[in-house]
Specification:
Elements: H1 9-15, E1 27-31, H2 37-50, E2 53-57, H3 62-69, E3 78-81, H4 83-92, E4 96-100, E5 107-108, E6 119-123, H5 132-135, E7 140-143, H6 155-166
Parallel strand pairs: 1-2, 1-6, 2-3, 4-6, 4-7, 5-7
Helix pairs in contact: 2-3, 2-6
């Protein structure tokens, strides 16, 4: 292992692609039925890393959860939404709306192509998934294969995996 060179934070920053500090507008992570506030802060960091925005519901505890979890120096791109109405508006405006869910006609994460149009990644409740009334608003479903005993990953991990894939980073 003597051939490994560790890079400093300054070196890593200078090697990154230059981009505006806000989201690029082509990807939106949408944990619209969150269960745990800590996942929102983690997902917000992933959004920053891939140039995405975060859409969250107007729930009383969400602003505090985001403030606690937001360790970014720059302002983050957050949309405050009413889930079902907002998803319908996104579809009407030409966004591709993908759910992360177990479904018969899902696309495996490994087969998911990079996003070529504005795309919303819908993340459901960790215990109940995406509500039935929202499933009709999806254009497609992405499945994250697992071999363990758990039925799913937490929202932050699942969202991060899908965002990196759609951004073309994996």
């Amino acid at each position: 292992m003597s051939g490994i060179t560790v890079r400093t934070h300054r070196e890593l920053r200078s090697a990154r692609r230059r981009r505006p500090p806000r989201c690029l507008g082509h990807l939106i992570a949408a944990p619209l039925w969150p269960m745990h506030g800590v996942n929102l802060g983690t997902l917000l960091r992933t959004c920053d890393a891939v140039g995405a925005c975060l859409a969250v519901p107007r729930l009383p505890w969400v602003p505090e959860a985001l403030a606690k979890g937001n360790t970014l120096r720059a302002g983050a791109c957050v949309h405050w939404v009413r889930p079902l109405r907002w998803l319908a508006e996104c579809r009407a405006s030409g966004h591709r709306v993908l759910g992360v869910e177990l479904a018969e006609e899902s696309v495996r994460l490994a087969d998911l192509p990079m996003a070529r149009q504005p795309t919303v990644v819908v993340l459901g409740h960790e215990a109940q998934g995406i509500p039935p009334e929202a499933l009709d608003l999806l254009d497609g479903v992405v499945e994250i294969p697992m071999i363990g005993t758990a039925a799913s990953l937490n929202v932050a991990v699942a969202g991060s995996l899908v965002l990196y894939k759609l951004a073309g980073f994996s």
